Amino acid sequence: xxxxxxxxxxxxxxxxxxxxxxxxxxxxxxxxxxxxxxxxxxxxxxxxxxxxxxxxxxxxxxxxxxxxxxxxxxxxxxxxxxxxxxxxxxxxxxxxxxxxxxxxxxxxxxxxxxxxxxxxxxxxxxxxxxxxxxxxxxxxxxxxxxxxxxxxxxxxxxxxxxxxxxxxxxxxxxxxxxxxxxxxxxxxxxxxxxxxxxxxxxxxxxxxxxxxxxxxxxxxxxxxxxxxxxxxxxxxxxxxxxxxxxxxxxxxxxxxxxxxxxxxxxxxxxxxxx
Length: 274
Hints:
TIM Barrel; 8-stranded parallel beta sheet; 10 strands; 274 residues; 10 helices
């Protein structure tokens, strides 16, 4: 397993996402993932599966400090009044006294960035989380986030071969901040893609594995593919026995011209344009 070292913390480059997994399913998949060798688990308040994830980690027989655990504060909990109580509730559900990474899930225009970042930093000061970061923040909002002095380690955003995130990725590299890729296979849209298929056949892999390999070969990128099927866990993590050539990387890079975004709720911020 490839790791990224960030702020003296070793983080597995590939983790398990649990978006849209019901609590029971999240418990089963998290348990299966830990058994398969995963040590990076991502959840969120709005997923309503923190209890399942926490139960699986607690029962796994693995030391807590061997599992990198992320959760996210929902946009309706960003005010000073609601922020810390919501984090405390998350910790109770997760059956732990801290997470390794706490993120702002989505920005909320009704709460000023300095207000919610102050609360995020306070959660870190209280020991509720080791590291802090944001999710779904374009560069214009990241400027405001960094102006607060917050030492964020990642921005978790949609990133896969079919979306153009060049501006955001370049910004994060310049600032020394990692990009954590959610929906890293475009919710299945990479399947059947001719270029990805052709490369996959060369290595005896599939389009999903090639897409994930493309991601983790990039400097400063983490990926958290989600699955509800235990048999896919082994396949998703089986990407460390081959390496894409520069020509193949360039071929995949061209797919971003499609600029397909699969997660774009009504409350999304103004995304970066290229």
